Amino acid sequence: MSEPAVKSGHPKGLYFLFFTEMWERFSYYGMRAIFILFMTKVLLMKDADASEIYGSYTGLVYLTPLLGGYLCDKFLGNRRSIVIGGLLMAIGQFFMFFSASAGTNGGVSLMWMGLTAIIIGNGFFKPNISTMVGQLYPANDRRIDSAFTIFYMGINLGAFFSPLVCGSMDFKWGFLAAGVGMLIGLLAFVIGKKKYLISEEGKHIGLPVKKLDAKSIGMIIGSIAIIFFMLNFKQMFKSDLDIISYFIYGAMVLMPVLIFSDKSLSKIETQRITVIFILAFFVIFFWGAFEQAGASLTLFADRQTERTLFGWEMPASYFQSVNPLAVIVLAPLMTIVWGFLYARKLEPSSPKKMAIGLGMVALGYVVIAIAVKGLGIGDKVSMWWLFGLYVIHSIGELCLSPIGLSMVSKLAPLRLSSLMMGTWFLANAAANKFAGTLSALIPGGEDGTGGATHFLGFQITNLYEFFIVFIIMSGAAAAILFALSSWLEKRMHNDHIEGVSDSVM
């Protein structure tokens, strides 16, 4: 009689992983909330330089899970990879603490060390803890979708309260809080992993594959050296060459060439993979606009947004809590909407949902463009305009983000599933690097109204023109993707994959 009760609930390991991931996200998003403000206010960097560094950092964060996943599968196993990743990320946050303490007296070099450790650590941590959620359940268990829903809420919970904590104090203490948060999650994982990381059949999950040998240690050290070199290249060689852009964008070009050179691909497989690459391309425009949240929009919140409530000035970093809160509140509502449409055979296809997501990003920038039109030097807009943008963008995220990985898993040939998933992460890496490049276009300095910049021949002299760039870019991408959607649907070759499961968070 006890078996059905067990099967209807979730194993304790899920909530254990929820807790670990929540603290890791607290660490990452807490640091991200204050990072660009730290570079411009403490290290006294120009907006453009700080934006490019932000883009390089967040881009590489999405690239290193490819390396971390490979080392995990071949050598380390999930558990050891998570411990290594968590420890490196905590060390990185402590380097950021020392960087903020040093300021302009050596703080930049300490920052490179901190970013390197966080980037590599994330590569070990991120792909492995999500994998272990699925390992808790038998194959094809109906509870897996709801398990990932619970796990996803842990991610957003950590992302929600971390800017409120880390952004409420001096930068160095904010980084220290992020490091302590990572240590809390890591310590809990180390203490509880033997007790809770057990499948319902009683088997331990995520165990190491091989002993940590000289080869795997060498790969870890080599990766750290390469990332540090790329981050520090401009400073070391006094060069304007952005080798990280060439590295990330070059990989985006190389990946389709590599995959399509596989002569074993059938016509249907080739067409499905083509759909994945086309959608990955449009994803770059979505996240390139969306990820301004941690870059140009944070600078805008700090400088030209009225943040006073009842005599209290809200920190600019607090705005980064709006998106995860909106996702937590709106995700169930969006699921109901998609389910309602699905039952009436009106649910949009996955490409159309992604086009809607791009359209919502454009709409968010329409709102903020209206707010800043005619804004003078020293003038500020109401914070509610920025709140509105983030809520609209969150709706766009819920239209696009949940279906991405699902689409890859459904369309990719089984023998290429890991490689295609890596391609999807690579698109996110390119998008984040692109976001930094776009953020560097924000005009002026402290007032945001002087010092023109240029983008594809278009001169940007004020914030209104800056936000117009995002309206045109994401709006055009939405229109083109919507126009292509019927063509893409035919090349997916599987009508039944367009179901309500795409909307499961």
UniProtKB/TrEMBL annotation:
Identify the taxonomic lineage of the organism of origin: Bacteria, Pseudomonadati, Bacteroidota, Flavobacteriia, Flavobacteriales
Under Gene Ontology molecular function, one entry of this record is: peptide transmembrane transporter activity
Q: Which Pfam families match?
A: PTR2 (PF00854)
Coiled-coil features, chain-numbered ranges: none
Give the way it sits in the membrane. Answer: Multi-pass membrane protein
User: SUPFAM superfamilies in the record, alphabetically?
Assistant: MFS general substrate transporter (SSF103473)
* Full protein name: MFS transporter
Entry's transmembrane regions: 82-100, 106-125, 146-165, 171-191, 212-231, 243-261, 273-290, 322-343, 355-377, 383-403, 424-443, 463-484
